Each structure stands twice: as C-alpha cells, then as structure tokens.
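Aim 2, interim progress. The first record below pairs a target sequence with its structure tokens.
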Amino acid sequence: MNNISRLVFAYVVAIPLALALGYLVATPDLASVAALGIVLFCLALPLIIQWHHALLIIFWNSAFMLGFLPGQPRLWLVMAALSFGVAAINHVLGLKTFLRAPELAKPILILLGVILLTAWIRGGIGIRILGGSSYGGKFYIYAAGAIMGYFALTAQRIPTGRRGRTVKWFFLSGTTSVFSNLIYALGPAFYFLYALVSMDFVGSQAASDYDPNVVDRFSGLGPAATGLLCFILARWGIRRTFQWNKPWRLLLLAAVVAGGLFSGFRSQIAFLGLLFAVEFMVEGLWKTSFLPVMALLGILCLTPMLLFTNKMPYPVQRSLSFLPVNVDSNVRAEAAGSSEWRYEMWRTVWPEVPKYLMLGKGYSVDPTDLYLTEQAAHMGMLKSYEISILSGEYHSGLLSLLMPLGLPGVAAFLWVLWTGIKVLYRNYRYGDARLRQMNAVLLSYFLAQIFQYFFVYGVFYGQLFAFMGILGVSVSLNGGVCRKEVAKAESVSAPAAVVLEPA
C-alpha cells in the first residue's frame, strides 16, 4: 500500500510539477521567473526556518533581489522580514530569546519612532503598487526594514564553530554586485537575470554606450572591492596580509585596489584607503615599524601610477581625478561636471532646510509632480537635479537625513552612531580574543562608513542597512555587548592554555 501511495504521488504531483518547472525554465520571462521563485520558496521553506539567521547574515550585503515581487525588493529586506518573523515566533514560544543590547535598542527604536511619526504626519506611507496615491513608501520600508533586520540579526548568537566563516561570508557577499556588470556585458540574452540581480550598478555602464561623453564605469566593482578588503582584513589583518611567504594574499589586496580603480568612482578608492587607514590604527600598527615600511611601500607603488595616469583606462583615470595628476581632458571635464552638478543642487536645497528643521518633509512624493518635473527636465526647462531633489536623492548624507526627518531624525541617528561606536569598541576591547580581528574590522568598517556618509556621499534610507548590519552582526558574534568586568572575571578563571579558533 505504501508503494502504491508513492506511485500515485509521483504521477499526480511530482511528475506534473517537474514538467511545469521544466517549461518555466525553458521560457524565462518575468511571469515564469515569478512562478519558479514561488515554487522554489515553498520547497526551501524548511531550510529557511532552520537556517534563517545564517542566511540573513550571508545575504545581507549581496546584490540579489526578487524582481518578480511587487516593488522588486532586495533579498536582504525579504530575509530580514522572514528571519524576524521566525525569531519573534521562537521568542513567544520560549524557544529562543533575543540577545540583550539595551544601550543600542533604545536609540534604534527612537529612530524608528521618528521615521514612523514623520510618515504619519506627512501623509502616510504611500505605496503606489498597493494602490497608494503617492510615491515614496519604498524609502520608509527600506529604513524600517533595516531596523527590523538589526533585531533579526540579534535574535540569536552565531554558533561557536561557525563564527569565523559566517562573518567572512557577511563581507564576501558584497562581491555579488559585480554580477550586474557581467550580465550587461553578456548581452540581452541574459537580461532576464536582472529579475534576481539588482540593476543599481549598471547605470553608468549602460549610459556610456549611448553618450560618448560619459566615462564607462563598472560600478559593481566598488562594493565588490569593499567586501573583498573586509574579508582580507577579517581573515588575516594587515600584519598577516603582508607576510612575504604568502604572496597570494598581496595579490588579493592588489585585486581590491584594481576593483576600486575600475569602478570609476573617486569616492570608492578614497573609501578603500580610509578603511585601510582606520584598520591600521585600530590594530595599533602605527606604533610599530610597519608605519615607515607601509609609507615607503605606498610611495613606491603610487608614484608610477600617478606619473602615468593619463595612459590608463578611462575608469581608472576618473577614480584618480581628485588627485593633482594628469588625466584626459574629457575625463576631467566629466568628473568636474559631476561635482558641479552636486554643488549646484546643494546650493538650491540649503535655503529650504529651515522649513523642515522641526518636522521633516518625509519621503512622500506626488506622482504628478514627479512626472511633470521629469518632463520639464528632459525638455531643458529645469535642471536635471530637480528630479533628484523631488525624489529625495540629495547625494549628501546630512541632507538626506535632515530634509526628510528634520532635527529629531538627525539627533536619533547620531545617538545610534555614537552608541554603536561604543558597543563595537567594547566588543573589540573586552570580547573573546579569538574574535578580536573580526571585531577590529567591524569597528573599522563602521567608522569608515560614518566618515563616508557625512563627508563624501550618503543616502540615509539606502545606507542605514549597512550600519544596522554591522551592529547586528557584532552583537550576534559576541553574544551581546561585552563588559570590562566580565572580561576580567573570565581572564582570572581561564586556563593557562588557550586554543585559538583556526583561521
């Protein structure tokens, strides 16, 4: 009877499902990808319930998205919602409890309150795909989703045997951003993959094919270089990376520099240098012989590059155009035009700031105003930055926070950042010695992100997830917030021999 039941199941369910999936794979349009994704999600649901926390960490920095869903959400956002739901159910049932980090929870919840209160006063969360009369709801969802993701990350501690691998994959997943550029290079036959990979990094590459004055930039190489650099620092640190008997580590570091240069963004190569410098300080190498050695090595490597900058590919020249070097006149003009575009937009926006100091303008946008602004800009009646102003894309971290959320949002966010620095430092200073290198990188990465956000380029709703991810992973890695008293007690009771976790 058991064999008959299996046979009936095979003929009634399994075989028709296999045929349907085969047909969907053979016809890769959007509807087929959506149906295939739903089926695969149902099949993977038991694995998601079991491994939701690890999957959230691994995919947090990835470029994957679910383009067949309304709004085309990023995968980290969907995983944050799923992971938080599973963690909340486990907490209610008493199976698992959230890790305690009260000094972080309070400012983060206040920031969430400011976001939701602003949305409520300024007309609600307008979600066009759900029948709303305005745009902008996506920005609220991504900001609130980043905060929800933090609590999902702190739902449980990373198991001891998987701490190193999980954190390293947290950084390495950033290398998936290069898939966007690869898909575009492969041609239209592969464009259906953009239903699973974000197109955020391909804009400059596509624009250069239609406008000869636009420098061809491979934007996905920027986040990929950042993720690879963080992986290198988390695994070996600066000191062990420059071991001369391990030359392939230096080759990986060279790949990071090349990726940053070919991304074509001046801010990217500056961020990589800033991250490396902060990590150099955190590891305390500035007090050792590494300082003159690194200075000499930097001079030897950078001098030939700077002398022959005008002979290099255009993306590399654009990345270095902020330095006093000789670059192609077209590249310098394009880079200068991009900077002037931002400065002009900021000069236009700053007089409007006092109107929104006490209560931000929110993210809600009237679709008719957006359409008319786009048409006027295309016809040359308005500056192109008027579209960015209306949609809240100020290309400035402070403005992207101050305009939509006002001074309450600025105060709450600064509180989150200051508390985050203290938590990351405590985990680095008083945490498990086996986690010291990973805690050092999390602290350095957080500090570098803060500097870039306020002084180079920042988008609040788009970068909040980066800050929340670093803090959430740190709490999950260390089982909460490490304290000085606990560290002393553990050092007194610890045995003389300490077994280090393998790299």
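The second target in this work package is listed in the same format:
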Amino acid sequence: MICFEYGSKPFLRRIPALFLSLAAGASLAQTADRPDWLGDASATVRETYDGNVFLSGVDSHYYHPPGYSLSPGSVAALKNQSASVTAVAARFGVNFLPWSGTNLLSQLSLTYTPEFDIYQEVSSETHYDHRFLGKLQGRSGDWSFSLDENFLFVDGSRIAPTYPGKYVTAYNVGAPRERRQQLQDRAAISIRHDSDQWFIRPGANLMFYDLQTEQRTNAGYQNFCSRYDARGSLDAGYKLTSQTALTLGTQAGRQGQEKFSFSAYESSSDYLRILGGAEGRPLPWLTVKFQAGPDFRSYDLAAPVSHHRLLTYYDECSFTARLSDRDALTLDGRQFQWVSSLGSVPYFDTTASLNWHHACTTALGLDLGVKFLSADYRSADLTTCRRVDTETCLTTGLGYAITRRFSVNLTGEFDLGLNDLPGVTDPSTRDFRRFLVSLGTTWQF
C-alpha cells in the first residue's frame, strides 16, 4: 500500500489493484508482435489530489453576500474545495496506410482516446471525455499536404458552478468550464509547393467550442458561451538553407461569440493579419517556428468597443533546443485578441511556457516547467468587465519505465492566480492558489 498525507487527509489512499494487474500483463506483452494497422494503444490509471477544484479565492465569509442566492442544481465555487480524482484513460489508434493502396500517403490514422475523471468529493465535476484524432499526410513531387482533426465530446454536467459575489477571473472559471458538457473541434489543413529557393503554403484552421450548459441569470452563475475562430492563410517562404526559411504571410478570418438572450453585447469580429517569421533548423540542435505582426480588427456593432476598428498584435512561437543527448528545452508562446467564454467583451490573451526535460537514465526522466498566462480585458468599454488576470503555473514530473511497455509517473503542479488591475477594492477575492499531485501508470500494448 502507498499512502500520501496532505494535511490531515490521506491523498492517495491506495494504488488501485489494476496497477498490479497491468504490471503483470506488461511482462507478458513484451514479445507480442504488433500488427501493421495498430497505431498507439495504451491504458492509463491515475490518482490525483486537487487542493482547489474551482481555483477560487472566495472563502466562506463571502458565501452569502447581499443579494446572493445559489442557482438550483449549481454548486458554490468556494476557496480550497479539495477533491481526490480517479482517472481511467485509454488510447487506441488505427493506421489505415496498409489498406490505402497508394504510395502518396505517409500517414493516415484515426485515434480514439476516452478518459473518465471521477471526483470523489465534488460529484458535480465528474466528466467523461471522448476524443478523436485524425491525421493525413502525403507528398507528390513538389507538392505536400496535411490534415489534422481533433474532435472532443465532454459528457459532463449541464449546470455551471456559481461563484459567490461574482468574483471570477479568466482562469479560475477555465478549469470548471472544461469539465462541463460541450463539443470542441480543432482542425487544420495545409498544402505546400516547394521550389529550389521558395515555397508557398495555403491553409485553413478552425477552432470551435459548443458549450451546452444551461443559461441562467442568478448572480455569480457562470454562463459559458459558444465561440469559434475560423481563418484562411497563405504563407510564402524563402529558403536560407535546405532546413531553414524566412516566411511572410497573411491570415484572414472571423471570431464569433454567442449572444446571450439577457445581454445586449457580444464581441464577434473579422480580422486580417500580416505576419513575418522563420521556421526550420538554423542550427543542428535548434528547431524554431514563429510568426508575428499586426492584427487589423473590425468588430460587429454589438461589441462593447468604442472604436470598432482596432489595431492589435499577434504572435506565436515554438523553440526547441537539444542541449545534449539527455536534455531538451522548449519555449512556446502566443499572443492574440480573443473572445471571452463568459460573453460580452473581447480580451488580449498571452501565454508563454518554458519546459526542460532531462533523461536521468534510459528509464528515468525528469520534467520541470513554468507557464505564464495573462488576460487583459481593457480593450472593451464596459467598466463592469474591466479586468487584468494572470496565472503562473509551476510543474514537475518524474517518469520511470519499469519495462518497455509499462511506466509510472509522478507529477506535481502549483498554480497562482492574481489580479493585476490597479484599484480593485479586495483583490484577494480574485486571487487563488492550487496544488495538484498525481500518481499514474501507463501500459503500452
């Protein structure tokens, strides 16, 4: 038996018996042959302690502010509501290349990844995820193409949580929102033509959220709106070397936001971006990809923005450095104008993360990471929605491969959410802290 103590509560009361059965089965599967059509196939069991399920900074003192009432069926999102979470997940992929009958394709696959997350002390947060991943890649002469599809159905509660006093930030409502019933779809298609010195690459992207929670007007109840971002793009690249290119491109698209029946506002808009960047491997140990440039925005008349034509900024980047045979450092970031999941106003979204992976041995790996997020709502005119929210996440993890197919992982995370808008009367109601500790095991078939 393995038991962790967090305060006076046992965190991981036991390692499920399935852990041991998976370990026994793994040794038997070492020599099993994998058929050509079988892609990723694995099973995972994980136990997690979540020290602040709703990432709330509001304690019981604010449970009944003036005029506050809990919406029927909803749950009060109070500070430091803890829970133990049991997760059972699987991954099953099918490789269709052996049946395609063509040599134009390099990848044609479909993967199904269900995950069942059961919250022992807060049953409203239990949810079952069903994710489908599709991948198509191919080449014919100087032409290449790719299609990526990521579809998610979350089978969860249709009733959102209630934050007493309406004390919310962009990040404390994010985790409960992802546990509610919804559909998500992310798709990307790209076609590329190469010459000796140049390439041209048209493409299209879709990001779509269909939030299916009930909408109510109780104070503090979180009405999550559906939203989307659809765009087309065209990039031209000049090859400095066979592996590195400078790029110049444009993106034209639309961001849409659902309008609530009880609100006069929504912040849908059209945009045009002009982006310069670089991609490839300028050094043998360094892989880069980034784009940056102005974002010309035109908002619909219902948007609470005084100047409906705005100039904002967009960038996205990814840098991976292989520091040694054992060490890899990855920096990812993105800044863009987006629509809020709570309706009404747009905001400027900033995300940056730095992760270090160290292979201690061939079987043992260590990961350390830090992530910074910022949501700035000051581009809108509604004073009731003016916020600047930040969150900093520190993560660590140890992974040990007991056998070639059987591994164990121990991870920890600390999240710190802060109000960054001057003049707030009591910023502690928006600040939050959360500790997460997880122990899991994965069996590769």
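Helices lie at 17-28, 97-100, 174-178. This observation will shape the mutagenesis plan for the next reporting period.
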